[in-house]
Carboxypeptidase-like regulatory domain-containing protein
Amino acid sequence: MKNALLLIFLFLTRLGNAQDTLFLKGKIVDEEQLFPISNATIQIGDNQAISDKLGLFSIIVLSNQLHTNGINISASGFQKLHLTDINDSSFLYLTLSPLVKSYSDNVSVTFGGKDIIRRVYENISKNYETHAFNQTVIQFTQTHIDDTVYSLNDLAELKLYNSGLDKKKNSFQIQLLQNKQLLKDFPIEVKESKENMNWYLIGAYELFPKSDVVFNNYSFLDTSHWNNYAYKLMSKTKWKNRSVYPIRFNTIDSAKAGIEGVVMIDSATYAVIHVNMHSNWEMRQEMAKRNKGTDFFDQNSIQYYYDGKYWKLESVHLEGYQIRSFKKKNHQFDFIEDIINYPKTYPSVEKIPFFKRVIHSAKLSSFNTPGTDESWKPILDFIHTDSFRKEFPWINLSLFGF
């Protein structure tokens, strides 16, 4: 009888310890410009983790360690951070302050973030094409479930269309040129999720390719929504050898605005040349509800380049995760998506024949249209180059068969 009681006691003790184990994941970024911080140290008691080149980290701890010690984060060039009150144990988005603040001290009191954005509007016609345009991009998407099983990977070439600067009507369209989709076996039944991800992959483009689309969809740039945001102008800095004004924007009314981040304005032309933004806590909760899950996180980085006359899309980087329930069990979906301006990055490629099917960004039927091996060769040659791997090191090419 004593042996039986001892076994029961040991079982309950082990079960209690297992329930106290927490697997924490998160991302560490620069507070001022939201750039990822690599090699940051995350310390919880005796347990330690290091952030990777994307600022991501994961650490396994016991809940009593977390409660007793809190979390200590440190990185070279940044102030140390100690957290004791943690209300989100599924994904921690942490910001570190630089040791030397770079908030603007060389601009007048009347010259602030809103003044810079107003000048952006005044110079739209000079900085962006206002007539019809075509632009070809490559999409890389990699999604995996629960850190182990990759579920959906896409490699697609798309052509973007827009009829020009039209504030009343968004006539933006996508034409699918070529597509390869590597769909591996799902470890769970997620037909609904598969459909949602297909919609998400296509639908993401309507925000990025052109000035009219950007300015009409990003409320922080819209003067009629300025009361929903707080703007902080930081001192001039360099971005890809351009002098820029970084403007940090945060939401005041979360019910009316859901994104926060940093927008960089070229000081010479007053064009938006880089945006780094993420969903705030309230938007994360709303997106989780829409996706029938418990949590959602995403961060976007959008980059433009100057062709000597106009500013054009160069690349978009999207990363995030969501937790959704299937058959009463939670699963975590991590996703990374890159949209790269193909001709700009690899201009020597000859024009590739494309399918004669134009679709609106919300239609999905042509997403499964396959391309031929011959037509893919120039793109595949480009992907194999060292320059591609150096410029986009986060793309896991092994997922796409490289």
